[in-house]
Automatic annotation (TrEMBL):
<dbReference type="InterPro" id="IPR006311">
    <property type="entry name" value="TAT_signal"/>
</dbReference>
<dbReference type="InterPro" id="IPR013022">
    <property type="entry name" value="Xyl_isomerase-like_TIM-brl"/>
</dbReference>
<keyword id="KW-0413">Isomerase</keyword>
<dbReference type="InterPro" id="IPR036237">
    <property type="entry name" value="Xyl_isomerase-like_sf"/>
</dbReference>
<dbReference type="GO" id="GO:0016853">
    <property type="term" value="F:isomerase activity"/>
</dbReference>
<dbReference type="InterPro" id="IPR050312">
    <property type="entry name" value="IolE/XylAMocC-like"/>
</dbReference>
<dbReference type="Pfam" id="PF01261">
    <property type="entry name" value="AP_endonuc_2"/>
</dbReference>
<feature type="domain" description="Xylose isomerase-like TIM barrel">
    <location>
        <begin position="90"/>
        <end position="339"/>
    </location>
</feature>
<protein>
    <submittedName>
        <fullName>Sugar phosphate isomerase/epimerase</fullName>
    </submittedName>
</protein>
């Protein structure tokens, strides 16, 4: 079919087709252009499936945790022409294409608009107005989760204030950047689960459905849950279950959710390969992050999309790099999930370039956004 410029006379056959389908001329042009493009698509090579053109992560799901650009948020606007403070950083992230952000605290440089501390009702309203102005939505935060248990009144009051601020910001998820406990012992994970179940119930009653814990590599080490006991009466061996797997089993899925940091999960895969079984034998068990996520997809509303380049000289096995420039198989990871209900938040702990390259974190954010966008199965 020959396509014409808008000023050319319509082809009678095209007009008949358009009227028969009830389409406008623009709709017909769009439809027939798509057909023509499909007709000339390059066939897959023998023995290789055709790559999908559908992004693995939709644009409305692509996010960034603001910890990645903390240097920009905290720099003095009086000494630089680079984006500084929440408002200008929101503008920069929106121009890159991000639609979601995750907070890592509510402080900025004191000279930035709004002042240093925006963890107040008034500050949250200001932040919300800047988010709305730039077409951004806050999906989560790494904020206050009480450490005491049972809850002290002061911790409960502060937790409720945190919920109030989250409500103003429009957060669908509220969480923390720490593991539920740093302990290796089953008894401590039992206490952590009891606390998180209660906090999740409080959050849900306040209008939230997803209170989440963000996890690092230690949470995927093996749980010490078997004898013999040490001098303090604590178990010294493992049944082979990992700490966070146990936490998932004993927490209420209505109240407790998780944010998988995919980088740290791969660090755990590299570091924690063996455990001492109850009979004293050393067992090998390789960790697969997908084996934890896939049976519990609805409990992982957020991910940290942090990339790593293999480096055996690093004790973690990987060096952090911009998303899409490392060796973690993100196409496999996201392509194995059944839904796109998750929000992958780009994170890179070492993105700030310091005085040598003060623009680096936003440059890495732009590169990483492009690679998130280009990710295909």
């Amino acid at each position: 079919m020959k396509f014409r410029h808008a000023q050319e006379e319509p082809n009678p056959q095209d007009e008949a087709l358009r009227r028969g389908l009830g389409l406008s001329r623009r709709q017909l042009l769009a439809a027939t252009t798509g057909i023509a493009a499909a007709a000339v698509a390059v066939p897959a090579l023998p023995g290789r499936a055709a790559a999908t053109e559908t992004p693995l992560i939709r644009d409305s799901k692509r996010g960034i945790i603001l910890y990645t650009v903390r240097d920009a948020i905290s720099r003095d606007p009086r000494t630089t022409n680079l984006p500084s403070g929440f408002r200008q950083v929101f503008e920069a992230l929106s121009k890159i294409g991000f639609e979601r952000v995750e907070f890592a605290g509510y402080t900025q440089h004191a000279a930035s608009e709004g002042g240093a501390n925006l963890e107040t009702v008034e500050g949250a309203r200001l932040l919300r107005s800047w988010l709305d102005d730039n077409g951004l939505r806050a999906e989560g935060n790494h904020g206050f989760i009480p450490s005491s248990w049972p809850l002290s009144q002061s911790d409960l009051d502060r937790f409720k204030r945190t919920l109030e601020i989250a409500n103003i910001l429009g957060l669908d998820h509220m969480g923390t950047g720490s593991d539920p406990t740093n302990s290796a012992y089953k008894a401590d994970w039992d206490v952590a689960a009891e606390k998180w179940n209660k906090l999740g119930e409080i959050a849900r009653a306040a209008g939230y459905t997803k209170l989440y814990t963000h996890n690092h590599d230690a949470a995927y080490n093996f749980l010490l849950d078997s004898g013999p006991l040490d001098a303090q009466g604590r178990p010294t061996r493992s049944s082979g279950i990992r700490r966070l797997e146990y936490f998932l089993q004993i927490t209420d899925p209505k109240y407790v959710y998780l944010e998988l940091d995919i980088y740290w999960a791969h660090v755990a895969q590299y570091k924690f390969k063996t455990y001492t079984a109850p009979d004293g034998s050393v067992q090998t068990k390789i960790f697969d992050p997908l084996a934890v996520v896939k049976p519990n997809e609805r409990r992982f509303p957020l991910f940290h999309a942090k990339d790593g380049k293999l480096n055996p000289a690093n004790g973690n096995g990987y060096d952090m790099v911009p998303f899409g420039t490392g060796d973690i198989d993100y196409a496999r990871f996201f392509g194995s999930l059944e839904s796109q209900h998750h929000y992958p938040m780009y994170e890179q702990d070492n993105a700030p370039g310091g005085t040598a390259n003060p623009a680096q974190s936003l440059q890495f954010a732009e590169l990483s956004y492009k690679n998130l966008s280009d990710l295909r199965a």
